Amino acid sequence: MDATKKKELFQKRTEEYESMDKEAKRDLLNKRKEENQRQSHISRIMKIREGPYFICTVCNRILYKNSVMRCINNKYPCQTFFNVQQSFDGKE
Fold it and tell me: Is the dihedral of CA 53, 88, 81, 70 positive or negative?
């Protein structure tokens, strides 16, 4: 969509909103708020569905992605540690 069409569409929607009465504006805002909450809930569920597929190399617990850090072997002087467990994406 080019810039002129976007501008026309924006102006049209602005005019429609300004011509609404207070009750209709409130209903529209509530509808948008409910939709945003629904989308937020769905995205939260999808993140939970990703599941705890990341494995701690120290305790071998299965954790969620935001609970672990990637193990970079070159950072540690001792190379005799076990990190044979792989996460579902195969990174570590």
Answer: negative
DSSP characters for 16-62?
HHHHS-HHHHHHHHHHHHHHHHHHHHHHHHHHHHT-S-EE-TTT--E
pTM higher than the cut 0.70: no
Cα dihedral 58, 59, 61, 63 sign: negative
Which pair of tokens denotes residue 86?
């792989």
| Pair 54, 63: CB distance under 8 Å | yes
pLDDT (tens, 9 = 90+) of the chain, 92 residues, equals: 788 999 999 999 999 988 989 999 999 999 999 999 999 999 988 877 777 777 777 777 888 777 878 777 777 776 555 555 565 566 65
By the 8 A CB rule, do 79 and 91 touch? no
